[in-house]
Every structure is written in structure tokens, then in C-alpha cells.
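Form 7-S
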Amino acid sequence: MKVKTILLFLGKAVLALVVLALVFSLVAADPTTLAPGEPAPDGAPRNPAACPVPAEQESLLDVFALAPGRPGWAPLETLWGQQSHRATLVRYLRGGPPVEQARAALALGLTGEASAREALAKALTSPDATVREMAALGLAYLGDERGEATARLTLGRGPDWQRYLALVGLWRLDTAPTRAYLSASPSTAPYPFLGDLMTTAARTRPWTPAAPDTHPPAVYGVPVNTIWEELADNLVLATDYWWHQGQYEQATYLLQMALFFCPDRVDLYGDVAWLQWSQGRDEMALATLRQGIAANPQDPLAHFNLGFHYFNTKRFTEALPFLCTGRECETWWAPANTYAHCLEVLGKHQEAVQAWEETVKRFPTDEPARRALQRLREAPAAPAATP
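Output:
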């Protein structure tokens, strides 16, 4: 009996030592682990109970953010040097439909494809105004003065994201006339952010990313829509970086560029509109959401985005027609629930009960919907909220 007790004690002791050794090895291997109250490298005390940084914040773009000399305001160069699709882009620039020509022109500029300058210059004579404008912005982005005149016009009157590209293009041109023009332009900016960027650009010299060590192999036969998706995905990835930096204006511009390449990305219209609304531009947010519907009239999510914006800003009467459009309410609980809530707020008690009943029938595991239905059945009809 004593032998068994001794062996059991020894076993527990060994197990405890193993656990302690494991914990010690993990702490020693983690250079970020600090004792409670010990200051972090940035001088701030570290909370030993704090959650770890989410994986999404450990961005692959840190290498771009830390690139020597990169200014904090210029576009993040996620597309620069990505020249795998050069041949396809040039072919579409020369002979594709106008919308594809315009996308190809901008893509050739953003990817730093200097060898495409002459093709871009020829596109300046296109009968399509958007093709001409994107060719000019592409040229300016490549530092070619043939894009300067149109870039100046765009900076003065274009959509915000195109103004932003024009500003960066004029900055890249780095001539005395462009710097003088930028110095005189801040008063024409529709928002302080763009005006501040114009002042910054006029006072700083351009920065161009280093050429990649190895160029990616050329890719042929890829559907052009796949190329636009790749470009849009890169821009959305860059948006995540600026979001975490608190640079919401730049995040907005990059998302709008992504929509230029992929107008069927319905989710991005909602993201852009939210950013615009959060910066006090409600009418612009509504215009963005209506643009999403115009580009995707058959997509229920495009309609729901607009309805939810109205609902979120307490314009319930305007929200109702857009919140629940057939298939969307049948396959996704959020539109159905929001629609039922909106009916309730508007004082449409019986209709709200019916909507919650339909929701519970379609989504039997939706416990909040079940509770809302029970609450409405038991409570008297409330007065309608002011639309």
C-alpha cells in the first residue's frame, strides 16, 4: 500500500514538473510575454489578461507599411509589380468593350506597367470619355506627363476616388508646374482630407516602390473577369490596412476603386456607404447604395443594404420597401428579422406578428425571432414610431 502511495505521489510530481516546464518554455519562447504591470515596448503597460491580437490584424501588408520612405498618405502599393496579366490587359485596352478598356487602362497604371505607356497614350484619343480619363490617370500614375492635363481636370471635378488617383498621379509627375498647381488647389477640395493631401503632395517628393526581385510569370487565357476580381481583392486587402490605421477616407477610396473593377461586389457598396455615413455624408451614402441597386437590380442584398441604411438611421417608412425582397427573406434571417422589426416600429402590429411567424417557420433555430414573436403575441399593440 505504501509503495502504491509513493508511486502515485511521484507520478503526480512528475506530471506537475512537466506542466511547469511546458508553461516555462511557452513563456520563454514568446518575446511579447511580460510580467504583470511591466511596460510594453511602446511604453504602455500591458494587461496580462488582454486578448491576443486577432489574426486579421496581423496583416500581410505590414511589409508595405514598413517600406523605407513610403509616405503615410499615398495608396498602398499592393498592385505595383503584379504584371502577370500584362498581355491580356494591353489586348483589352486596344480592342475590348469600352468598360473593359477603361479598367485595363487603370490596371496598367496601378501595376506600374511602364511598357504600356504608348498603348495608354493612344487610348487618350478614345471616343469614350471614361477610357480617356482612366488612360490619363494610368499615365500620370506611371509618371508620364501626357496624363497631366486630364489629371488636373479630374482633380477639380471628378468623383472622390478619381480625384484621389489624380492627386497621386500629379504628385508622381513631380514637376514644378504640378507642385505649384497642387499648392493652389486645396481650396477647391470638397473635403478637408483631400485638401490636406494636396498640401502634403505639393511639399513632398514622390516615392515609387522598389521593383520586385522577380517578376511573376506571364499568365495567358485567364478570363478578364477573373483579373478584375484579383485586382479588387488586392484593393480590399489594402483597405483592411487603412481601416486599422484609422484612415477611413483612404479606405473608402480603395473600396470605390475595387467597385470600379467589380461592380457586382454588392457587399462593398454597403461598406462604402457605412464609411461615408460615419463621416457625416448621408446623401453620398444613399447615392452609393442606389448605385449598388442600379448595378445589381436583381440582387436582393443590394436592396436590403439600402433598406437597412434607412432602418439604421430611423427612416422606417423609407426602409420598409427595401428590407425584405422575396428570396432574401427566405434564405437569410437578417432581412426577415429587420423587416419584422420595422413593421413593429411602424405600429403595424398584426403584420409584424405575421412576419415573425414566417421567420420562425423558415428559421426554427432563430431563438431571438421566437422570443420576439412571443413578446408581440402577449403585448398589446404599441403606438407607431414617428417615421
